[in-house]
Amino acid sequence: MDFTFSEEQQAAAEAARGVFADVAPDAVPSPALTTGAVADEFDRALWARLADADLLSLLLAQEYGGAGLDAVALCLVLRESAKVLARVPLLESSAAMAAVQAYAGPELKGDLLERAGRGEVVLTVAASGRTGHDPAELAVTARQEEGEGADWILDGVQTAVPWAYDADFVVVPAHTAAGRTVLALVARVRDGVALGEQFSTSGERLGELRLESVRIAARDVIDVEGAWEWLRDLLTTGTCALALGLGERVLRMSSEYTSKREQFGFPVATFQAVAVQAADRYIDLRAMEVTLWQAAWRTATGARGALPVAGDVAVAKIWASEGVRRVVQTAQHLHGGFGADIDYPLHRYHAWAKHLELSLGPAAAHEEALGDLLAAHPLG
User: Fold this and answer.
1) How far apart are CA 77 and CA 71, in angstroms?
2) What string of DSSP letters covers 135-171?
3) CA–CA distance from 143 to each of 124, 212, 269 (Å)?
4) Strands (DSSP E) along the chain, which ranges?
5) CB-based contact 58:12 (threshold 8 Å)
6) Does position 62 have pLDDT exceeding 90, yes or no?
7) In the prediction, which pLDDT does 68 show?
8) Taking the model in full, what pTM does it have?
9) How far apart are CA 139 and CA 128, in angstroms?
10) Do the beta carbons of residue 275 and residue 269 sit within 8 Å?
């Protein structure tokens, strides 16, 4: 196994660093100072720069104006975005585009992908289910009317949909009476669709998506076995990349602060208790990194392993959830009262870390899923 990044993957990461170089983590109001959303919409100017740098179409094939790269390249870009708390739906839109490309019919792909890759159409995914704890595909029912190519009817509620108020379309997993899971592309503005405001710990506006007898054309529904599972794994892997990038930036902030802060005439970084805590967090980050690239590589290649791809994704999410929490908690401790100062960006990283920890399920949920996989696929 070779985890060396290709030239194309490294070029994507370098382009991302260039785009994010001027992004200030505290460019929008702090969630500690805002009772509602920190902003009315995502960073449209940054979105345009990402489009100009061809970073929105990384996973699209050349025929749709993309670079034809894979999940590893996307995770490299997401890692850079999290270091500056980039307020854009890069993960959700990229993952939705990739699912449409991989599983949708030619009519939908031809109509949507090029525009989405240019940033003209924004996509998101409803992946949290009804309560945030139950499977997302069980929160919405889907039934197809009689006749070949007939419309589908959706009913149900999905909670905590990211960027729901800004996206043009939401990819909604739904279950049929036969027990299949389909993916429906639902326009944000249409009959039967309603949104209720929700807010994440980071202060970003989420949406409770309510669907009441929403009619969806057959061409906008992906009825292919495995499509939702593949999209969910990609979303989870991307979330792990965001957690890694955020954690790396926070550990660097802690290193810089403790190197300058002095006690008894010495930098606190030279104290053994401080060094040991920083070393433990470095180990967390390296574990988060290696499990992330394992999951991204298997998601990208479909390579066989002792467990299905979902097993590697679960391991990566367990480390990401627990690791990013420990990193930001240690950072707060090492910064002392300065870490809670609203004029210093660490408290924002802490808020984002909590959102990422719980996004798409906390560590315990993925530990349970991993246990089920191990029971179904005994090792040795």
Assistant:
1) 10
2) -GGGSEEEEEPSSTT--EEEEEEEEEEETTTT-SEEE
3) 22, 13, 61
4) 123-125, 140-144, 152-162, 169-175, 181-187, 193-199, 205-216, 221-222, 262-263, 266-267
5) yes
6) yes
7) 96
8) 0.96
9) 9
10) yes
